[in-house]
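agent> call fold_tool(seq_1)
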Amino acid sequence: MTIIQKNKDIKTLVKTGRSNTYKDVSKKSFIKSLRAFYTLLEVLNEAKQLMKYHYLKYQKSKYSSVLIVGASTSKHLIFSEHDNGQTIQILDLI
């Protein structure tokens, strides 16, 4: 699966574990969950395969998809799917 990372703050958070925008989620356990999710995306062929991983609570809608990352923080990663789910674009973390 191809990942398009337009949100530079999330990209920095994944890479370094720190972000000025997402200070409230800089806990090591959440960063570990977020990095594990990105690793999982690299292995999968399309977004609908995320349904197999119930702990992620993947939800697809017409315009965007939502994924809950990190059970302790319950942060929602918002992304859009393209090319029948073979490409995703990370939009926001709320």
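agent> call fold_tool(seq_2)
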Amino acid sequence: MASEIEFHLDNLKISNQLDQKVRDHYEEWKRGHHDIKNAFVSLKQLSGKKSVHEYEAKIVLYHTPDNIVAGHRSSAIPEALHGAIQAIERQLRETRSAFRDRRRKAEIQFKESQ
């Protein structure tokens, strides 16, 4: 199954290994779930005197019911992407956990009402 990921690299280059790492994480997030439709990955070099050697990676997961967005800044491209991936994973775990909790509560309330 092809990854539905759009990359915007702002004239920057990433290695094939780093590209594959992002795609592997995306496939892992989707495995066994139907709540992710596709993703957008943005990578840019920040400008300004204090941030000349700083990169920002942002990832958007088009997720049902709400999209998930995370970003990370670092002095190196791989670390910026890794930080954004970690932030997305944390938010995805929290979102899925909250959904499971709401579903369990609704099932308990339904059983009690019968």
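agent> summarizing second result for user.
The chain has a mean pLDDT of 90. The beta strands are 5-8, 36-45, 55-63, 68-74.
agent> awaiting next instruction.
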